[in-house]
Write a structure and sequence with these properties.
Layout lengths: L4 E4 L12 H17 L3 H11 L6 H8 L5 H8 L12 H9 L4 E4 L4 H11 L8 E2 L12 H11 L6 E5 L2 H8 L4 E5 L12 E2 L11
Parallel strand pairs: 1-2, 1-4, 2-3, 4-5, 5-6
Helix pairs in contact: 1-2
This protein binds magnesium ion.
The site of magnesium ion (MG) has 7 residues, from loops.
């Protein structure tokens, strides 16, 4: 198999989960859900847990099953302007990405403005040929097969010739199910039973390139 492209997730993949950035996004989502659904936060999260099996993101679930329609208000609430302020430039990451022998793109279940903020803070905005976000994907997220196929079609690759790296097991499994080379980044060793290739540091991806 000859790889042609590397497709990265963004959050907790290109920067450490230790920044707590995504945890804060999750908290804002929980607050948003609670306000929208009424009742307790516990109940709102319970409903989402039940419904989420069929959806890639909370927004998809809200729109499909809870009659939610105001996408922009949702994104403004969960991705406020200063959300990436604690992140700083990562020249070492930049050097590593620049040293990779393949073109690179991003597939995120977040909106573009979030991706732009993060990449700009990290100082790596210019390194990716494509950034596929939720708007580009018509508000359908990973792990839906059509989301992967759409991105790969734009890249001119196939699952077999693309290395996809994400910190969410169900997204990587979705890609592996298409015959793709999926790599789980598991920084905190949270998924020791995960059955497919798994790394703890992004630099380990070199082992999977050849
Ligand atoms: Mg992620």
């Amino acid at each position: 198999m000859i790889l042609q492209y590397i497709l990265f997730d963004l959050d907790n993949t290109l920067y450490s989960s230790r920044y707590g950035l995504e945890m804060k996004v999750s908290q804002r989502i929980a607050e948003f859900l609670t306000a929208y659904l009424g009742g307790s936060q516990e109940e709102a999260l319970r409903q989402r847990r039940e419904g989420m099996h069929y959806y890639g993101t909370t927004l998809e679930w809200l729109m499909a099953e809870k009659g939610y329609t105001d996408i922009e208000a949702y994104y403004q609430a969960i991705h406020p302007a200063g959300e990436a302020d604690t992140l700083s430039a990562d020249p070492e990451l930049r050097r590593f990405l620049e040293s990779l022998p393949l073109p690179q793109a991003i597939l995120t279940n977040s909106p573009r403005e979030h991706a732009d903020r993060i990449l700009s803070k990290l100082g790596i905005s210019d390194l990716f040929t494509h950034i596929f976000d939720m708007r580009w994907n018509g508000f359908k997220g990973k792990p839906h097969a059509e989301v992967f196929h759409r991105a790969l079609h734009a890249l001119g690759t196939t699952p077999e010739t693309t290395l996809f790296i994400d910190d969410a097991p169900r997204y990587v499994k979705g890609f592996c199910a298409l015959g793709g080379s999926g790599l789980l980044i598991d920084e905190e060793n949270a998924y020791p039973e995960y059955p497919y290739p798994r790394i703890q540091d992004l630099r380990e991806l070199l082992r999977f390139l050849y």
